[in-house]
Amino acid sequence: MIRTIRLLLLVCCTALLAAGCCKKDDTPGYNPPATAERCVVLYMPGRSLSSFYEQNLEGIARAVSATVPGDGRMLIAWQPDNSSTARLEEIYYDTQRRRCERRTLKEYASFAAQSATDVAMLLGDAVTAAPARHYGLIIGCHGKAWVPRTEGNLSKYTYEKGQPKVPEEDLWQPVPGALPTRSFGDPGHELEIGELAGVLESQTARFEYLIFDACFMANIETLYDLRNAVDYVVASPCEIMAAGFPYDRITPHLFAGKTPREALEAACREFWNFYENDWNSISGNMQSGCISLAVMAELDALAAAMRDVKQAAQQAVDIQTLQSYEGFENHLFFDLRQYVEQSCSDQGLVDAFRAQFDRAFPAESRLNTAQFYSAYNGTLNTVTYYSGVTVSEPSQNSRATKNSETAWYQATH
User: Fold this and answer.
1) In terms of DSSP bridges, do strands 390-391 and 334-335 run parallel, antiparallel, or are they unpaired?
2) Is the pTM above the cut of 0.85?
3) Over the stretch 119-132, which tens digit does the pLDDT of each residue have?
């Protein structure tokens, strides 16, 4: 069966870094370690939201010092010139000049973000250029969770015999005047989640974790497809404001002497703390920050617990009472744990599911602000229940009809 899970990679970063950020220098007095302890690759394909991505890179530059990344390496894969070329660069600290520097490792005269072959080549080149004992990956992307490629640009109408029938909600069209979030990118740069999993699994070195600086990716149908590709995933169940992660705060944790899980737990706390307490330090931002950490080795056991739930007697669920995570009129993403609690009539199975859910998504890293912003209704939406992970199975939106084709659904029914 063809998988229907998709990832729409953001188009981003068009200009050189602004004053006060890393300075361009392709011939630095820099001697990288023969084998770094840690290497983090920030992959940002495309050209949208360039000003916000420049701010992210400036944040990394503020974090870089004599001790960060220390014996590690920080690589940037992006498309600063146009959407058909790419560049692999390194951000580092020059101890002689006592400042952050940036150098080009490789340029690509032809690169397509929608090509799994090209993305695999780029990440493979990053691994080759920066040998390390441990690797991590951050992707700035246009996230629509599991929604199929064919449903990416939705019509406002359904059709019957070629004629418009009923006005339909355009899921991915923000309301006029909405603040930018990371759920919007240029069309035509799509990579299926299954393809991304294959790209990661094909690398000679394993990326231990993946941080999605993107909307809606803490979704069980999406995460399940990545369960064998990485050990951990940090993602948001809803939209992420265009400001993205506070890179100046999370970068030091990624290079500290911590286990990957400890570093990611700290990154989750920094993300939440920024949007809870310092969100207004960036213009056009909102107090909206929901995040969670997935332990991928626990997802098969979670699917087994879900299968037990689905085989038990089911109760009718009023989806109007379920926590949703977007501003659609006809919701697509609902809280996974709440859905199980309301749909299963066997309390013992619900308790077993909850226990496994806590192993898969540790409670200390399921963090949320009291509200989340959605560009689809242009407002803050109240969070009344939060587990940090969504599911689309109960959705009655016509765009959710292919949910039964996802690997998660097949494993749990």
Assistant:
1) antiparallel
2) yes
3) 999 999 999 999 99
**Residues 204-221, mean pLDDT to the nearest whole number:** 96
For residue range 79-127, list pLDDT tens digits in order: 888 889 999 999 999 988 999 999 999 999 999 988 999 999 999 999 9
Do β-strands 36-44 and 73-78 pair in parallel, antiparallel, or remain unpaired?
parallel
* H helices present in 312-385, as ranges: 336-343, 347-360
Q: Which residues contact 38 (CB under 8 A, 6 or more apart)?
A: 69, 71, 72, 73, 132, 133, 134, 135, 136, 254, 255
Q: Does the bond joining 69 to the residue before it have cis omega, within 30 degrees of 0?
A: yes
Helices (H) and strands (E) in the chain, counts: 10, 18
Q: Across-strand partners of 334? A: 324, 391
Query: Using 50, 70 and 90 to split pLDDT, how confident is the model at 310?
Result: very high
Residue 43, classed as helix, strand or coil, is strand
The separation between CA 267 and the C-alpha centre of its own chain, rounded to angstroms, equals 13
Compute the chain's Rg from CA coordinates: 21
**Neighbouring C-beta atoms of residue 156, cutoff 10 Å:** 11
